[in-house]
Specification:
6 helices; alpha/beta; 128 residues; Rossmann fold; 5-stranded parallel beta sheet
Length: 128
């Protein structure tokens, strides 16, 4: 059982750290990658390809602004995808949340705003 965090950019590391700190508290293994669905789609696909034969994976996507990453991961994987976008403030959230909430068909993404709640959701998915 492992959480695989994919950030749209390394600038999202401080947000990812809030999640991984709680995953550590729960004893859940994790790994972290940085790859933009807009700028590096083949790298994102490569990450997904290396995980496709593993069991008990939950993807956590961390991308702000125009969040293509979450839908891209969900559409190209059989594992659950949790989006935890890194909003700077409430205005940023109100402007950019729709790119995380509005997904095309066959791209199921669960959106969780609070990083600690995101880690708790992973814990509950795994039944830990």
């Amino acid at each position: 059982m492992k959480a695989v965090l994919i950030m749209g950019s390394t600038s999202d590391e401080s947000h990812a750290k809030k999640i991984t700190n709680k995953l550590d508290d729960y004893g859940i293994a994790w790994e972290q990658h940085a790859a933009s669905a807009h700028k590096q789609p083949l790298k994102v696909l490569e990450i997904l390809e290396t995980k496709k034969n593993e069991k008990n994976i939950v993807y956590i996507t961390i991308a702000g602004r125009s969040n293509a990453l979450s839908g891209f991961v969900a559409a190209n994987s059989e594992f659950p995808t949790l989006a935890c976008p890194p909003f700077v403030n409430k205005t940023d959230m109100l402007v950019n949340i729709h790119s995380t909430l509005q997904m095309p068909s066959n791209a199921p993404v669960l959106t969780i705003i609070d990083p600690e709640n995101c880690a708790m959701a992973v814990k509950r998915i795994f039944g830990v």
